[in-house]
Design a protein that fits this description.
The protein is mostly helical. The protein contains 18 helices and 6 strands. The strands form 2 sheets. A 3-stranded antiparallel β-sheet has the order 1-2-3. Strand 2 and strand 3 form a beta hairpin. The radius of gyration is 23 Å and the shape is globular. The structure holds acetyl coenzyme *A. Acetyl coenzyme *A (ACO) binds next to loops.
Length: 431
């Protein structure tokens, strides 16, 4: 393939330079603008990274127009149908699907890392009972750097691997502890005889006074949701992990910053916001009035769970989750879930409305995920935590890719400065 070249001429000086496009294995070419600052003394301006690739990556590919999502080349639909979350986590981190023996070894390692240091458990007592679990989880993850010193040397591949296994293993435990703290219930220790999602549900819902049997349908549905949320290339939280990681900070700090970024309603917090929105709408006859507010530029209401920076077509994950909703609700005995019915109707009306059609706004992964979480008994303020558990696999893969790249540089964007020019300090008495 011939390399595409672009000629840039500074109209004021006539100086010309040639910019080369870098070719991906699949997807749009990426113009290398690195010479601009040296050749012309200009920076580029692209708020929100609308046209800017921040890094090279081999992990996940999205075609937003066609609604394609590939993890390491494998379509998410195939992984959702055939794989498990831990297998997908392995794929994201190591780049290949594991052999049966490798998966067994990886699963064993994850299982053996599920407990957290007892001192970390005492951190939760410092939180008020109604502290948002994302606040608790991000704080505890950041604090892990103070406990697990055998995984802090970012230049040591074995340290990086221990960190990777440890954080994936402990995220359910850390999250369940936050949940139990909110409820005022005793913490439930991990059970190594259970698989990843069954163990998670057990830690969430078991109490010491009764035997708790995990419903296999619930564990399977959760596993599916974790697969679908496991990675999504350079989204806001992953980019945050990369930017923090590029400073050489420890990996727990980098993941904690990703958790903080995920919390926002434009990103991972959308799943929580969708259920709030559905409850606010209440009944199908109130949909037109709600959509009128969404379309009113003076009203700041958004149709939560709709729209995506990259997908300008159906989010492939939303399709899978919508199907799973039917199956899960049937199996957990709540087939006539009114919020699901309302969501289906809302989707139908929005997809035939010119406002959403012309802006290519489709349901995203979080339009339906909260309905499944609710059916599994997971409370609304834990939804984004569930997302964080899943996305930890992607964050770890991206952090590993970043740190093992010999060409890694600290991420340091430039700016378009529009503040005052240099001026003299004025003494307080004369201001
Ligand atoms: N409801 C109503 N209008 C919307 C919505 C929405 N959900 N999303 C976008 N629009 C409109 C905007 O008002 C804008 O209209 P305009 O051209 O008339 O000004 C146009 O569509 C383009 O929207 P932008 O905000 O420029 O798109 P951007 O790519 O910056 O935002 C985002 C993407 C943040 C996801 C946005 O669609 C949104 O806020 N959606 C709701 C929140 C949500 O579901 N987030 C989860 C995303 S997926 C994830 O993180 C897992």
């Amino acid at each position: 393939m011939t390399t595409r070249k672009f000629t840039l001429t500074d109209a004021s000086t006539g100086k010309t330079s040639t910019l080369e496009a870098l070719s991906p294995t699949v997807g749009s070419d990426v113009l290398n603008i690195a010479p601009l600052a040296k050749d012309h003394g200009v920076f580029t301006f692209d708020p929100g990274f609308m046209s800017t690739a921040a890094c090279e990556s081999k992990i996940t590919y999205i075609d937003g127009d066609k609604g394609i999502l590939l993890y390491r080349g494998y379509p998410v639909e195939q992984l959702a149908a055939k794989s498990s979350f831990l297998e997908v986590a392995y794929l994201l981190i190591y780049g290949e699907l594991p052999t049966a023996a490798a998966l067994k070894e990886f699963t064993l390692s994850i299982t053996r890392h599920t407990m957290i240091n007892e001192s970390l458990l005492r951190f939760y007592n410092g939180f008020h009972y109604d502290a948002h679990p994302m606040a608790q989880v991000s704080a505890v993850v950041a604090s892990m750097a103070g406990f697990y010193h055998d995984s802090l040397d970012i230049n040591n591949p074995r340290h990086r691997e221990i960190f990777a296994h440890r954080i994936i293993a402990k995220m359910p435990t850390i999250s369940a502890a936050a949940y139990k703290h909110m409820l005022g219930q005793p913490f439930i220790y991990p059970q190594n005889s259970l698989d990843y999602c069954s163990n998670l549900l057990h830690m969430f819902f078991a109490v010491p006074s009764e035997q708790y049997v995990v419903e296999p349908v619930a564990a399977k549905a959760l596993d599916l949701l974790l697969i679908l949320h496991a990675d999504h290339e350079q989204n806001a939280s992953t980019s945050t992990v990369r930017l923090a990681g590029s400073t050489g900070t420890n990996p727990y700090a980098a993941i904690s910053s990703g958790i903080a970024a995920l919390w926002g309603p434009s990103h991972g917090g959308a799943n929580e916001a969708v259920l709030q929105m559905l409850e606010e709408i209440g009944t199908a006859d109130a949909i037109p009035k709600f959509l009128a507010r969404v379309k009113d530029k003076n009203d700041h209401t958004r149709l939560m769970g709709f729209g995506h920076r990259v997908y300008k077509n159906f989010d492939p994950r939303a399709k899978i989750i919508r199907e799973a909703c039917h199956a899960v609700l049937e199996k957990v005995g709540r087939p006539d879930n009114p919020l699901f019915e309302l969501a289906l109707r809302l989707e139908e009306i929005a997809l035939s409305d010119e406002y959403f059609v012309s802006r290519k706004l489709y349901p995203n992964v979080d339009f339906y995920s909260g309905i499944i979480y609710s059916a599994l008994g997971i409370p609304r303020d834990m939804f984004t935590v569930m997302f964080a558990i899943a996305r930890t696999a992607g964050w770890v893969a991206h952090w590993q890719e970043l740190i093992s790249d010999p060409a890694m540089k600290i991420g340091r964007p430039r700016q378009l400065y529009t503040g005052p020019t240099a001026r003299q300090y004025v003494d307080i008495a004369t201001r």
